[in-house]
Amino acid sequence: MEFRPHSALWAECGTTKKYKCATMKIIQEEYNGIVCVTVRGRMEAQLAPAFEKVIKDIIASDRRCLLFDLSALDYLRSSVLRVILNAVKEINSKSGQVVLCCLNGYVKEIFEANPFKDTIAITDSVESGIQALQCTLNAA
Fold first, then answer.
1. pTM of the predicted protein model
2. H-state helical runs in 25-140
3. pLDDT tens for residues 58-72?
4. What distance in Å separates the CA atoms of residue 106 and residue 94, rounded to the nearest whole number?
5. 113 lies in a domain?
6. What is the tally of structural domains in the chain?
7. For position 71, which CATH number holds?
């Protein structure tokens, strides 16, 4: 199955990386300084180290705006949640921002129950997430 960008905003995307295993797929795209990480499938505990490496590589490359598109994420373990929360902490310390978008079902329940939910921007769409992050880029 071919991946299609979420919107016209991503059509000009210069960089796309894909990571795949039997139960999960991670797609990393970049658009004008915003990195979008789309996660599809089930994010089991044994996959957390691979996911963490992808995120740490993004942070190490001095990116300050990170968008997680979780629309196709069916399930996640606490170890994966910890990776996302650590990314928020590290990027916030660099005066950046992390936005989660398109949460649904079980994943949405997990984030709504999390005591750190007030420190993470959550939007309903990729487009609104991009807009929130563009404000961060423009303020820099």
1. 0.82
2. 48-60, 78-93, 105-113, 126-139
3. 999 988 999 999 999
4. 30
5. yes
6. 1
7. 3.30.750.24
